[in-house]
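User: Last request for today: this protein with fe (ii) ion, please.
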Amino acid sequence: MRNLTESNLTEAVLAKLATTEDARFRQIAESLVRHLHEFVREVELTEDEWLKAILFLTAVGHKCDDKRQEFILLSDTLGVSMLVDAINHRYPEGSTETTVFGPFYQTGAPEFENGANIAEGVAGKPTYFSGRVLDEKGVAVAGAIVDIWAVDGEGWYDVQLAHLEAMQVRGRLKTDDLGRFWFWTVKPVSYPVPSDGPVGDMLRAMGRHPYRPAHIHFMLSAPGYRNIITHVFVAGDGYLDSDVVFGVKSSLVTEFTEHAAGRAPDGTVMQTPYFVAEYDFHLARENS
Ligand SMILES: [Fe+2]
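Assistant: Here's the final one, the structure of the complex with fe (ii) ion:
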């Protein structure tokens, strides 16, 4: 293996992968080498550009810590996350569409009873959200776990606020015998993905805005059903057609309707105007 050139270098590297034991790893590594080499050939990468790419990826890594995941952000903003999501969630007709997981999920969110406020003390417009978890045929799924996370009324996730000691605008509920769940929160607002790091520099170089349309994240699970990770988006948001992470699906958009002060659907007497939103989720059975 000597005298390798532009034209035979790729084959030489691929030949080195022949001894890879894990068949799937070999498939992925071979494809990666082929596409990576082809990409370098196609753009005729200069040495300066190559170094810039190395420094960019290094900066992406350095920006990561236990609360900031710049690599997920990079994947999201290049559409890779949504492509992986689409390939991995070819769910049957009738089940709720999925969308990007995002970098802000935290394990260990508090468990709440239905009707609780998951945004107690959080600034924002009070919102009553209710819905049901059903199967593809519309039959209630009792005891499903509804895991919720969202921004505060100013567009920040709790993990982005250094002064916070406890989680906020996160919670886990369980559906009742009729598959219902309901909770109070604050109306989500559109927010920019973190743009103070290398991914922000990339977006600016591309002339792109960093905004996501307002949404609440949901993860739904129940024994015997396939998990669903998705969002519910606020109808009318100005960024629905230009989501920086390509995550919007029309079936996930719902109205957040404003009501004057008074008695809310769960009987709570509201002293201020509030919003009401509703969304039913449909789970697909395992092996479907
Ligand atoms: Fe989000």
